[in-house]
Amino acid sequence: MLTTKDDILVIIPVYNEATHIESLAGLIQGQGFKQICIINDGSTDNIEEILFEAPTIMLHHIINRGVGAATDTGFRYAILNKFNAVITIDADMQHDAKDLDVLFDSYLESNADIIIGSRFLKLDNKIPKIRHVYNKIANLLVFAFSNRWITDTQSGYKFITKKALENIQLKTDGYEFCSEFIIKALQQNFKIQEVPIHVYYTDYSMKKGQSLVNGYRTMISLFSNIFFKD
User: Distance (Å, rounded) from C-alpha 177 to C-alpha 157?
Assistant: First the structure.
């Protein structure tokens, strides 16, 4: 039974986020989550030179493989090192570290296998319209595959138990992994819950994440990896 924050590994996939990652790690540890794993997905900035004040694991991809591949590397590390759960969080300061406790407390109350931090359950979040559009399309795709409506399928802020990590095998490397993960979780009858989180968009964070081109790639990749899987 998961009882403490020390049982949880916070996973941060990063690509050229040297300007933010040290501050984010400090905020996370300030919330009492001391176990952090940063996956450097082939960054070309100086992230490898950063010396964190508190112990932080950094894993490296030699080349940029994509956020899905980086996150999955974190998952494999968590399994090998026997963590009871993970929390994934975006590296661009879009998420509020204080909401780590929202996800953790929700698990303690519900015992769900996966808890998704939803941007769209909190009415005062100022979310650009284009993000609403991209997310709604992705939500419809997930619904088509699983017959379950999730309000924020593309959220990078998730709590995931060891059981779910060990049983969900990802095939996709890019942003489509968010949809793939949820679809496969629902197909295996894992309990999923959503909780409202804060989100903060800046000009910097808007350059990250989904785009129309990525949306098309997501659709094609999902069809090829779920309908035409081995």
Answer: 13
Angle at 72 between CA 68 and CA 77, to 5 degrees: 155
Average per-residue pLDDT for the chain: 89
Q: What average pLDDT does the segment 84-90 reach?
A: 97
Residue with structure tokens 């929390």? 87
Cα–Cα distance between 17 and 91 in angstroms, integer? 7
Q: Is 135 inside a domain boundary?
A: no
Alpha-carbon separation of residue 134 from 15, 104, 128 (angstroms)? 21, 27, 10
pLDDT at 220: 61
Structure tokens at 148: 């379950």
115-155 pLDDT per residue, tens: 999 999 987 888 888 888 888 888 998 998 899 999 999 99
Q: Percent of the chain, pLDDT > 90?
A: 69
227 part of a folded domain: no
Provide the number of structural domains found in the chain.
Answer: 1
* Containing structural domain, residue 202: 5-127+154-173+189-207
Three-state secondary-structure class, residue 149: coil
Q: Is residue 119 part of a domain?
A: yes
What does the pLDDT read at residue 228? 47
Task: Provide the whole-model pTM.
Answer: 0.89
Residue 40's CATH number: 3.90.550.10
Distance CA 30, CA 220 (A): 40
Per the CB < 8 A criterion, the answer to whether 103 and 183 are in contact is no
**Residue 106 forms part of a structural domain:** yes
